[in-house]
Predict the structure.
Amino acid sequence: MLAIKNLHASISQPILRGINLTINPGEVHAIMGPNGSGKSTLSNVLAGREEYQVTDGEVQLNGKDLLSMQPEERAAQGLFLAFQYPVEIPGVNNMYFLKAAVNSIRKQRNLSPLDAVDFIQLIKSKIKEIGFDESFLHRAVNEGFSGGEKKRNEVLQMMMLEPHLAILDETDSGLDIDALQMVAKGVNSLRDGKRSFLVVTHYQRLLNYIVPDVVHVMVQGKIIKSGGKELALELEEKGYGWLEGNP
Amino acid sequence: MANQYIKEVVNQTYQYGFVTAIESDAIAPGLSEEVVREISRRKDEPEFLLAWRLKAYQHWLTLSPPEWAKVKYPKIDYQKIIYYSAPKSKKDGPKSLEDVDPKLLETYAKLGIPLHERAKLAGVAVDAVFDSVSVATTFKEKLSEAGVIFCSFSDAVKNHPELIQKYLGTVVPYRDNYFAALNSAVFSDGSFVYIPKGVRCPMELSTYFRINAANTGQFERTLIIADDDSYVSYLEGCTAPMRDENQLHAAVVELIALEKAQIKYSTVQNWYPGDEEGRGGIYNFVTKRGACRGKHSKISWTQIETGSAITWKYPSVVLQGDHSVGEFYSVALTNHYQQADTGTKMIHIGKNTRSTIISKGISAGRGQNTYRGLVRMLPTAARARNYTQCDSLLLSQTCGAHTFPTIDVKNATAQVEHEASTSKIGDDQLFYCKQRGISAEDAVSMIVNGFCKQVFKELPMEFAVEAQKLLEVSLEGSVG
Ligand SMILES: Nc1ncnc2c1ncn2[C@@H]1O[C@H](COP(=O)(O)OP(=O)(O)OP(=O)(O)O)[C@@H](O)[C@H]1O
Ligand SMILES: [Mg+2]
């Protein structure tokens, strides 16, 4: 699914310093690591944010060279990023935005656009799953949404776009306990043995709901340790210090 | 990156740049009392109108061009302007579309206005102003059945001189300002509308303006009177061919709403804005004002301003009748070196009068966009209310947005509310859209449309679609 080899990226200074990571179809990988270690940078580089320069390495998504693609092509190839800080787009209706997104991805995949009726049916079933009120569909994208509502909106978009690889950057931060379970349910409903996930989180708790196959620890732009789901528990107990000492 | 994209969108060349080769029957350039008399003579006008023109001309001589607006342009040489030019056509002018010069119809087709089809399909009567004389008017019969008068200003002068004499200059007197005085002296033609008592105009009335002959200043005069209990929606739209020299346009529009009457006046203005370096383009110095004379009357101005090198325009409402309502909805877009100084004046005189101002300014390139507004509550305006919202959207680092709201309240029971905001299309917004599979181009038009939604929804359906397209074209290549 995703193969990252020796990825280096910088923004005014080097941030990612040789990332190697392979995610197979159907796997859930978690990345943990201290603030500023480069987790969001990795997410953004994978999604194609122009501000970051890739200085070395390569990335393949389903066998295709990801780094040569425009961000919207990456989306069409099935890459989805749930942003750590979702962006507000005043004046643009949430439902309209979602429809534009779904249909432009369908177009890039040579599928016919969903008509209004099909679209509304689809979205109504999805908002229930994440516990959203219908009124959110008629508000502007993320405008005035609470922190947790923004995160849930990201999950809603993910469920609508049905990506092959979803990157969740701290989607659990700021969620209340019920919302956390709903988000986890949303993610788990998409787990079908083929779809893959890269979950960035600071809290082991999320991983009780979304059980990862592999847990990685990122420190200073490198993955310094990988392990099973027990690693998250160990980190919760001991912090990062013991790892940073012996990379 | 976003910057680069916005540049591409904005830098699309003007599609409507072409000149129709039609012989013009023009008066030599220059302005003098003799020219004013000659215009009036050629139009075979009644004495009262000539007298009024001459008074306006004498007054204009005492004035100098206004300098308070935030626009810069080289001094205009008023002696180089041609003040009268009528397209030469068959004797006595066309009686129907078949009589219209085919070149002219071709021009309209290029502009996307296939006169017969579109007019009929849309149920719109088009009073097309080509240069300075109206050459085609449709749907006359249907309108006259309803008792509606919709004709060129010249025809109105001939056939309804009493209405002209009664109302002309009562909303915008020739003394009002420099350009209004100039217009009053030399106006060549325009549109006239009268809606009789109790009549709801059966169709939207529409005029497409187009400046054509070189060096011809356009001095349109529009007068719309809605008698008691009547309703009319009027659409004005325009494009101009590309040329190098700046062209002056100084129109005057007067609206009069009597008791319980409603006038909705919508404009899409798309004149040649000048090239990327700011050369050429139209100077648009317009005086538009409506008077809510009757109780419970209502006047709404909706404007989409994307064209012209310079726009100087403040559609206003004088709220005389008690419980009358004034509205102003505006989208003004400036790109390259375009300058827009626009806004409105709401003058509250009557009791319980209400006004709403929604102004959306979009600046790209080196465009300068200024909102200038006045809300005045006179001592008589008990419990009057105003709500003003002024938003600016910036698409580049080099453009500018400015707001000059003036509020003057002389009645303690009146309420005025003002909100303002400035935002940018940010890289993060564009990236967010692209990550969801939406191209930068679509993202920009989505965001701009979202920004303008409050205004677009005030436009008649047909026009709303056009306006949206127009913004897309005007913005192609311009995100930042
Ligand atoms: N646009 C930028 N300009 C300058 N520095 C940046 C920029 N973006 C990221 N950085 C720096 O890169 C480093 C990694 O940031 P990143 O956001 O990837 O960390 P993170 O691991 O996601 O942290 P957190 O857990 O706090 O979200 C930080 O030191 C950050 O300050
Ligand atoms: Mg982060």
Summary: The first strand of chain A starts at residue 2 and ends at 11. The two ends of chain A are 27 Å apart (CA to CA).
